[in-house]
Amino acid sequence: IDEGVVAIFLNPVDWKTVRPALLACHEAGIPVFNIDTSVFDTQYVVTQIMSDNYNAGVQCANDIIDKTDGANIVILDDPDTNSIYERIQGFMDTLEGHEEYKIVAQREAGGELEVAMDVMDEIIKERIPFDIVMGGNDPTALGALAAIQANHMEKEVSIYGVDGSPDGKSMIQEGLIKGTSSQKPSVIGKIAAETAYKYLNGETIEDYIVVPVTLVTKENLPAFDIDGWE
Fold first, then answer.
1. 157: nearest Cα among 136, 138, 140, 141
2. CA–CA separation, 34 vs 20, rounded Å?
3. Is the pLDDT of residue 230 over 70?
4. Distance CA 140, CA 57 (A)
5. Other beta carbons less than 10 A from residue 128's beta carbon
6. CA–CA separation, 219 vs 74, rounded Å?
7. CA-CA-CA-CA torsion sign (169, 171, 173, 177)
8. pLDDT at 227
């Protein structure tokens, strides 16, 4: 604000506690373009440009249903990050009514590899039986993998994440992660920039722009750039 910028692109860490910053931008007359993770106070942003986070969770759940007859599932989430919240909601809604799939533990993992590793290790030490781990993002899935490998359980457990990160796809290639619902960050960035120019030129823009996601698994991995985000 002090530098006199004409627009701000915002990817919030916490979708609610970012409110004071949104109010400050609003009072200064600076348009905010919300990308990747939603804010709670949407009235203070011009538009939201998001991956289809809910469908990312749906895709992971459907892949599990297609490939298994039932499972005990651990969910590692981060409810303060709206994108992860939506992914987990999509995952759980898709499994609803399938009694053969049981959520045996659901813990906050902060969306971070190190935190997820510690949380997963605690679950293992509690001797909770599980077959599948659903991570709210790829760092969470990779943290879970680290703990599972440390306990020599990698052949017994299937892990899913969301992001389509290079590390996530690399672990799919190695057979250590089953799937990751891939976002398209460069597409989000391109759309965000184009949308900002349209707004600043006085054009009408949509309040909410959804960018599709695609589930990456061993079967379709060759179609993706393993070392990149697309």
1. 141
2. 15
3. no
4. 14
5. 12
6. 24
7. negative
8. 83
Q: Which two tokens mark 119?
A: 């949380």
Considering only CA atoms, give the Rg of the chain: 19
DSSP conformational letter for 89: H
Amino acid at residue number 103: I
What span, in angstroms and rounded, lies between the C-alpha atoms of 10 and 41? 13
**Measured distance CA(134)–CA(12) in Å, rounded:** 23
Continuous segment of H or E residues that includes residue 135: strand 132-135
pLDDT in tens, 151-181: 999 999 999 999 999 999 999 999 999 999 9
User: What is the rounded CA–CA span in Å between residue 162 and residue 169?
Assistant: 10
Strand partners, 105: 74
Full DSSP string of 71-84: EEEEEEE-TTSHHH
**Distance, CA of 177 to CA of 154 (rounded, Å):** 9
